[in-house]
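Retro notes - structure team

What went well: the batch runner handled both jobs without manual restarts.
What didn't: labels got mixed up in the shared folder, which is why I'm recording both outputs here explicitly, each with its sequence directly above its tokens.

Job 1
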Amino acid sequence: MPKLKLSLASGLICVVIGAAALFGVQSIMKATSSPEFCVSCHSMSHPQAEWEGTVHFSNRKGIRAECADCHVPHEGIDYVKAKFVALKDVWHTFVTNKLPDQEAYEQHRLEMAQRVWQEMKESDSATCRSCHSFEVMVVSEQKEAAQKMHKLAQETNQTCIDCHKGIAHFMPEMPVDNAAALGELTKHAGQFSEGDKTLYNLVMAPAKTADGAEIRLLPYAELNDWKADGDNIKATLKGWQQAGAESVLYAALGQRIMVGLVSDEAKNKFTVHQTVNDKVTNSDWKEVSVEVSMPKTAVTSDLKSLNAFGDNLNQTHCSGCHAAIGANHYTANQWIGVVNSMKDRTSMTADDVRAVTIYLQRNAKDMVGGAH
């Protein structure tokens, strides 16, 4: 009997100790998920200030997404794992002092952001989906652009973080080596042979008419019926001009895919083949052509490399805040407004903007075949 009592007492003590331990662990887990705990490290004062300036902190609906809501899985082994992984932050704060000030934080911002983006990608943005769900979205009440992007996301199995980077914290500076990409492109300068029917202008460059009038050709400008002339080529430049706005040469009727900028001296050098009234723009358009001359080194027959350069610009500069949008998502004319609305958020030069715009337009959904 005494042994039974001892066993019961021991068992009861174990239960009490276990319950106390469980309660203690749960309390610690909860306490270490609070915003107050998260920002108790001085290095977290920087992201705290950023978060407090977003709708995730304060909004008209009175709903607040706190640190753990976004950065800590809400259940299961992933929740426990996240807590153990977070111990490294304590180590770096009190031992290595990895982020002593704002400057150090900025140096590591990209590294930290990419790690979080990858974790969210791998979890299919589980913490985002604890509040947001395609199933309960009233898509018809969203802005037109949001409707299109959410439809595209569902069709292509994208996850929240593919598009919604930088919504609670500032975006890091994204390293972009445009010079290397352009250098790779210019390797193809002057690469063509007699059997190539069409040559393409590589970067913005001047072409001359027979009497020296200048037309500044944009990337992708097509040159046909060409022949070599020493270090130059002579070729036929074709396109469309909108009546009353002859200073710009476009690639197609009613579609503002720029081919060249026409000087005043060159405006009357074109041969007009036909005039067509375009109902969309409600104006007359003239199909025209002109003979031009330009250096061999300014052109290539390698359209594949030109498209690779345009795609690289799109993937590199247009995926920092959201997933890069496929060229066939918008029409050729729609792409002008889309790129113009986003260009100031990137580090693209004016030449880059022109190149990526024309690339996207040439491969837009209303272009024949969707790829050119």
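Job 2
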Amino acid sequence: MTANNLVGQVAALSGARAGWAESRVSVLALALGALMLVGCDQGQVDTANKVGQGFIVSQTKLERPSADAAMVRITTKPGGAQIYINGHRRGDTPEQAGQTFAIKLAEGSYHIQVVKAIDANNEWRGERKDVFIADFTSPTVHIDMSRELTPAGVVAQRKAEEERKAENQRRWAQQGYVDNQDGTITDTKTNLTWMRCSLGQTWTGTTCSGDASIHRWQAARDLAKESRFADKSDWRLPTVDELHSLVYCSSGQQRQRRLDASGSNARQGNTSLDGSCEGNYSRPTIFTPAFPNMPSAFYWSASPVAFNSSDAWGVHFYNGFGNYVYRSSSTHVRLVRGGQ
């Protein structure tokens, strides 16, 4: 029996004899319940803007509420959300905080879902499953919604990820790096193979976790000899020239690196020819997709300083300059194999 038929019966009964009063009240209650249940049903999904696609469950039967049925109040954060009960559209929560959407529901268990559009790729979603509603009650159901991708958003995200991967591959090729899929990369320009992580860090398969450790120069050399990684045992400290080959200036501006007759950085006027980056560049000064989670710090090389046996060369990846420090200093280490 439809809601319109029930309303018609109520109208017919209104002119009947007074002895039918009890029946008239009963039919009126049924009619009002049917109106609340049927009158605002808008289908499973908002077909106008496709909100809730892939989220709203398939419709299941809703029983007509009796006169004793619960008056359920529904609130959401944020407000203005479309309400679906067992897959049936039932209205919208108020935009204003503190206000509720009220509906009579027969005693039983319900799946209440709410959804609100943000843009073509995103929407607010929330749900409460197995909400039991008892007669003679007036419960309030509050649902906090979370931001989720729409089907179009999932497609857009996949496209963006594919574009990002293609761009990374282009940049890797531009740098001459090949990912060996074992925590190492090979530089095709120098034919050197590098550990992607600094000593002290752990390769997770996608990034370097933990903190890079620091060591004195001789300790770094000893650790290199003892290192076993990616089924290789011929790891070593790089020379300063090899280490400096990793410097990447995102600005595209880099000073020349050249030594003078004494073995120190040469100068050109007031400028030190130390190979550092110039302009507006990112730090650390290395190609971070190949060497992730690296500190912008000084790294040891195996190259001693010719004019001072207390010092050794290294490269500072804060700005990419080659310099020397006391061998007793504790700094970071990245190992290499091949070459020489």
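One thing worth noting from job 2: The CA atoms of residues 249 and 277 lie 6 Å apart.
We'll revisit the folder naming next retro.
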